[in-house]
Amino acid sequence: MEETDREAVATAVQRVAGMLQRPDQQDKVEQYRRREARKKASVEARLKAAIQSQLDGVRTGLCQLHNALGDVSDIQQSLADVSKDWRQSINTIENLQDVKDAVVQHSQLAAAVENLKNIFSVPEIVRDTHELIEQGELLKAHCKLMDLEFSRDNLMYEQYRIDSKNTHDMNLICSYFGETQTLSEQLAKQLWMVVERSLVTVRCDPTMLVSVVRIIEREEKIDRRLLERKKQTGFIPPGRPKKWKDKMFDVLEKTVTTKVEASQSDTRESNKMWLVRFLEITRKYVLDDLLVAKNLMAQCFPPDYSIFYILFNLYHKALSARIEELISEDLEANEIVEEMMGHPELMEEVNINIMDPLLPQDIVDNLLSKYVKTFTSNITGWLRKALETDKKDWNKETEPEGDQDGYYQTTLPAIVFQMFEQNLQVAAFINEPFKQEVLRLCLKQMNSFLTRYKEEVILYKDEHLKDRQHPQCYVQYMIAIINNCQTFSESITSLKKKYSNTESDKNEEAIRVTLDAVARDGCLFLLDEVFMDLEQHLHELMTRKWLVGSNAVDTICVTIEDYFNDFARIKKPYNKEMTFEAHRRVVMEYIRAIMAKRITFKNADERKDGAERMMKDAKQFKFLFKKLSDVGSSDADRLCDAISAIAEVFKLTDPSLLYLEVSTLITKYPDIREDHILALLAMRGDASREMKQTIIETLNQHKSSSMASVQPLFRDITVHSQTIGVPKLLK
After folding, report:
1. 556 close to 534: Cβ distance less than 8 angstroms
2. Which pTM was predicted?
């Protein structure tokens, strides 16, 4: 306490010191004193009020405890009095047993009197009820049945109350009312017949269906009442609870299941489209039934029955079970995936997102895996068959059909991509990952198919070379094959754009490489065909016959132009590439004829005539290929200019200037070799051994080493039988 006082004094001193730190504050000492006095008085008043409140609460609590003690004493005395009175009344209760028995007997007799009319008229009521059931008067029949059951149940209940172990009397009552249970079963049979045909009945006689629902509702109420009494007394009449509402739903479920199973009228053996037919029939009647349930049946049932949703779930369950059975029967690829149903009016009523799937996910996964395997096997067979059919067309004696632009084509690309399109449409209906898997599989199979396609094209060419008269339309069908490659490529691009947003994969790249290879091979095969026809005329070049006025070049140009009238049916870009390649090969064959040393000019006049003839031929070739390509080309000019450049070497009259002409030739065509130059000099016929060696050595010193930007022309031209003894200096 002393320590508390010291702390209080110290706090007060510190506070006073804070108030009187400045001289001017000393004038306010009285003011500070009055303020502190008011604060002290306020605190003391609050303390007094709090203490007074606590004292009042304690006083009130003590008073209540005193009153409670008095009440407990009174209750204790009352309990003692009750216990005393109870002990005195035991003998009195035992003396009232006769009264109790009389009351029970009176109750039993009262029940008998109450049901006396029904008891005596049971046979008549049974007969009337049976007739009403046969006449279809179900509501009236049920009313009489309820009267019989009410009488029987009351009598049995009273007997149960008297002596629950007296089975003899119970059996006697049951025997007397024995026909009641039979009538109940007969009525139930009629009810279930109506329920089975409810989707038909509701359209023609909805009153009948309403009567059935009313009867079921009555029985449900009776079941609930008797079950509640059983909880209190332990007694329940025989045949209760009937649970007719549950039985009604069981009947509906059985009806739906039977209806789904009965929809299959065909088998795979009798109709290849059996599954499509089954699903279409099922789709139609299920939608019809659900629309009837929504628009008509829902008005005949209480709202708490939710009859539409009950039927919807029953059909969902039945379809799921039936489809699982079909899956177990080893479906074929085209039977695995089918779209079932959908109706805008029903979509408003049902949230399909909260429904269970029609098939469990593991079954769906197994089914899709089986579909992929079957599809892989089938598409291999389809592609093989399509190729065999296309190969038969290659040997026809009639030209292939043209597209809207007149380009030759066969039906192979359309058939192949129709297969792919159909399966991708099915895959897209399922989900995105499955669609991508099927697309990848299609591209993979396409890649393998094109490898076989390329091999068959080569075999087609080889068979033709054995007898060039057959097939009659070899050129036209080879053009169609080239165009097919372009169509295949466009179709693949279309499929990728429509069914995938991913970048190209290795299968797609391989397909494009193979297609380009097949198309280019086809172009080369056609050019081979052309040059086989030109072979005889090419051999006339650079011969004495050519020098004196052969028409070999005219024939070559006419033949090429005739072939290219057909080649105009080749799509871009291969038609342009083919024109350039034909131009290049003609020039190479011409130069190859020069290098073959078929002729050696004897004098300047022959060299002049030969040079002029070569220049004329070059102009003729240039005119032809400009006409075929419709556009000018520096590469095309350069090809024919090689012939003109060689002609300038032959035309030169002063041998001492040969070095300059040959130097110009090498500058324009850096791939020219030493043996080429020696062959040209040998064809001139006036170059000495020393001159040849001097030209070779001099040119070797100035030859350009850069040839990367210039397309080679002389590289693939071989000079045979070169016997001039000059060292091989030009590398």
Report:
1. yes
2. 0.61
